[in-house]
Amino acid sequence: MDSSWKRIIYLICTIQVGGGITIIGVLSFLPLFLAELGLHDPGEAAMWAGLVSGVTPCMVALSAPYWSRKANQLGPRKVMMFILFTLMVTVGACAFTQTPWQLLMLRILQGVVGGYVPIGLAIIILVTPENKVPWAMGLYQASMVMGLVFGPLMGGLVADLLGYRAPFVMFSALTGLCMLGIYLFMPNLQFEHKVDARESQLSLIKSFLVIPRVRLLVGLLFLCNFGITGIGPILPLYIKHYMHMNDEFVATIVGIIIFGAGLFSALASISIGKITERLTMPRIVFTATWAVGTLFILQYIMPSIWGLGIFRAIAGFFMGFITPIANTLISKAVPIERRGIVFGTVSSVAMMGNVLGPVLSGMIARAFGYGAVFWSTAAIFFVAALFIYRSLVIPSESKSL
């Protein structure tokens, strides 16, 4: 692969930003849009917001292995164009929904065709020289975070200015531009290592998850996604009802808070190379995981919106270390020729964190109040940190003695 590999990396990262904006952009105004559709009880709105937010990544996680195999067989360009076209149509249709059930059905369809993330990871592994993979993985992770960042910010601003239906039209147009970018600039790549059509996806997943380190790191990726998306659906309602914020600015404030967390997360991801020169990767992951748990507690006890936003941003910074390092450690644990398939499968499993995060947070908020969401998320990160210390930090430091 000649120097054009970088152009492909930049294109895939740009598509990832656009796709992330489209899928995640509804978080900053979704509970408020559901109220417009007839859900006026805060608890019921929180539950529906979690359901509508979580069902899309759920379907992505279930369908992504299918699209990864199709990309392996037919080439990623053709499959990516089909995915983006279907997203463009279904996202645009959300602007015309009249009931929560209609919105839910469209979000399910978006998830069914939303498997572009593992395809992007597989393309990166395919085109990137071996010594440049960590850089490419960090850039791809940063682009994923930027989609999470700009999506709620753009969605919140447009919703406050033009109404809650306008962002869906904007996101649909953005997806169309991404599809055009693939059509014009993506070459017809083919994967060197084809998946055996007789090998089931379940057997592929089992073959990777029998490796203890891979199993632990996939769980960590799952948890990181859980923490990122879990607070999202309840954040507008938490700010509105407990911090007495004017309805006119809630969506924008939520977008700004998510923007700050994502920006700091992207900065951390880009700086991974320098940090790993001074500290071991297991030690960094342990410290970051423990810090995130502590910061979720600090977010809850803050009496002001800006205090909440500051600690949310710091938590985002530490989360930015977790995913790139976990992916790097996974790549070291599997054979080179299987990495493309591994990352496609691993990303699908880890994506379930995006599912259970919003759904469980909505249910917990309805049953025990908004504060329980912050405390339960913090507790899960603390438990994960202990597992990381026992399974990764202690063995790695024992070898260095």
UniProtKB/TrEMBL annotation:
GO molecular function: transmembrane transporter activity
Membrane topology value: Multi-pass membrane protein
Compartment list: Cell membrane
Database matches in PROSITE patterns: MFS
Native species: Veillonella parvula (Staphylococcus parvulus)
Pfam families referenced in this protein's UniProt entry, alphabetically: MFS_1
Entry's transmembrane regions: 9-34, 46-67, 79-98, 104-127, 139-158, 164-185, 216-239, 251-272, 284-302, 308-329, 341-361, 367-389
Family annotation (InterPro entries): MFS (IPR011701), MFS_dom (IPR020846), MFS_trans_sf (IPR036259)
Keyword Cell membrane in record: yes
Gene3D superfamilies: MFS general substrate transporter like domains
Protein keywords: Cell membrane, Membrane, Transmembrane, Transmembrane helix, Transport
Protein name as annotated: MFS transporter
Major facilitator superfamily (MFS) profile domain location: 6-396
Cellular component, GO, one term: plasma membrane
